[in-house]
Design brief:
It contains 13 helices and 15 strands. It is of the alpha+beta class.
């Protein structure tokens, strides 16, 4: 089947990005009488579990619930599990179509195109919402010199994705996707297999054992890192790799969220330089509802302490913020890093752990990096192998990270890399026993994610 070709529009006044160009927000028709969507601030989240055992955002709910239990150092983990849904923001529980599961960003093998994926928990797109990719670019990591906003909306059977001067429209579920006339943007929307994988039961078992060890007297150091014995730490890591004592199983096997897939020419995304930083949001007419970039941060490192009301408020604040607002979350993220740092029986070996002694500021360097939550991609390279490759190369924490596009491709073992960096300061060594999805997503063949297996 030939690809559908979307329309392109010339310049017109009122561009959101400033200067000439198409005003993307004026393109969105009135939604249920509410008028056109307006640009709002930006937001994030990973895969969780609902009461009906329905996977939610990017990481499992258990990692966040268990963190809260360990910080409380009182009461069993099981007693908190019933309320763990609420560690995800109430706004997302109310409408899972606004809940971003994951965001992916990586380069094509020839380094000519930037590939983007956003998975949505609700399994369908809402005609009330805008699904937005924010693409910052800079000459070096951790900055921003220019930005491109790529917005997608749906009216039921069709979807549209657009920048300030290009529009592409296609039918939802059409695997070939749709392209602009000049081929600069290709887009797909529809249900696909979720490439994210997670051993929820192994994580649960590990946290149960960690909570028991704390209850039995394992102390915390002043920086907030639990001191587990070598034997306990070894047992924790072993439990994490098993499911009910057996080989690890993927809780998300067969999960098929609706996904938005984009392939865009690099020249459109790199106006500010070759380093690209990507994050995604969902917005309605009034506000930003969710945001996502790296896995894990929003669900496992935030809201680890306090009442349910306080945790909900913090999650809503995080989801409504932009990466540039990250400073206000550094102290809370540092607490979460301190918890992870102890799981290998050593405190102070998490990535970027400073030598500022036994204070929470030990974890501030990494917390600052994570609070600016964007997926960094080096658009000069078509070799893409690892999460945090760009950041680690910039920080001189591994020559192997150099000349790698980094970002996050669907085939990455992303959560285990993240956990290993938090626990041991290196990209391997800590895992949940799973290293790939049962189906095989592609980093090279559009629309990248495996089709639904009926």
């Amino acid at each position: 089947m030939a690809q559908r070709t979307g329309s392109e529009t010339g310049s017109c006044p009122g561009s959101v990005m400033g200067g000439g160009g198409l005003n993307q927000w004026e393109l969105i028709p009135s939604l249920h009488g509410s008028g056109p969507l307006l640009p709002t601030r930006h937001r994030e989240d990973t895969v969780v579990e609902r009461r009906a055992m329905q996977p939610l955002s990017r990481l499992n709910w258990f990692e966040a619930a268990a963190a809260a239990a360990l910080f409380a150092t009182a009461g069993s983990l099981a007693s908190r599990a019933a309320a763990s849904d609420h560690l995800d923001a109430p706004s997302l529980i109310a409408d899972p179509r606004a809940d971003i599961g994951d965001v992916y960003a990586w380069m094509s093998p020839d380094a000519h195109r930037l590939n983007l994926v956003m998975t949505i928990v609700g399994r369908e797109l809402s005609d009330h919402l805008a699904y937005v990719f924010h693409i910052d670019s800079a000459p070096a990591p951790f900055g921003r010199k220019a930005s491109l906003t790529l917005t997608c909306t749906s009216n039921g059977p069709e979807f549209s994705c657009f920048t300030t001067d290009r529009v592409v429209t296609g039918r939802i579920g059409d695997e070939t996707g749709a392209t602009t006339r000049d081929g600069a943007i290709r887009a797909f929307a529809g249900r696909r297999d979720d490439p994210f994988f997670n051993n929820v039961r192994g994580t649960r078992d590990m946290y149960d054992a960690a909570t028991a060890a704390v209850a039995a007297g394992a102390p915390y150091d002043p920086a907030g890192c639990p001191h587990f014995t070598t034997e306990v730490a070894s047992d924790l890591l072993r439990r994490w790799r098993k499911t009910d004592g057996e080989p690890a199983r993927n809780f998300l096997k067969g999960w098929t969220p609706v996904s938005i897939v984009i392939s865009i020419e690099k020249r459109l995304a790199t106006k500010g330089g070759p380093l690209v930083a990507v994050w995604g949001t969902t917005n309605d007419t009034k506000r930003q509802i969710d945001r996502a970039a790296r896995p894990l941060t929003g669900n496992a490192l935030l809201a680890t302490i306090g009442s349910e009301r306080e945790r909900n408020a913090l999650k809503e604040k995080w989801n409504g913020a932009a990466p540039a607002d990250g400073k206000s979350f550094v102290a809370e993220i540092a607490k979460g890093i301190g918890l992870y740092d102890g799981f290998d029986g050593r405190c102070g070996n998490s990535l970027l752990a400073s030598n500022q002694g036994d204070t929470p500021k030990r974890y501030y360097p990494l917390a600052r990096l994570l609070a600016d939550d964007r997926l960094w991609v080096d658009s000069r390279y078509g070799r893409c192998t690892a999460l945090f490759a760009v950041e680690r190369a910039a920080l001189a924490h591994g020559a192997k990270s150099a000349r790698d596009c980094g970002g996050r491709a669907p085939t990455y073992d992303a959560s285990n890399v993240y956990r290993s960096l938090l626990v041991a300061g290196k990209p391997t060594g800590v895992d949940d026993g799973l290293h790939r999805d049962e189906l095989h997503p592609s980093d090279t063949t559009f629309p990248f994610l495996a089709p639904v297996q009926e």
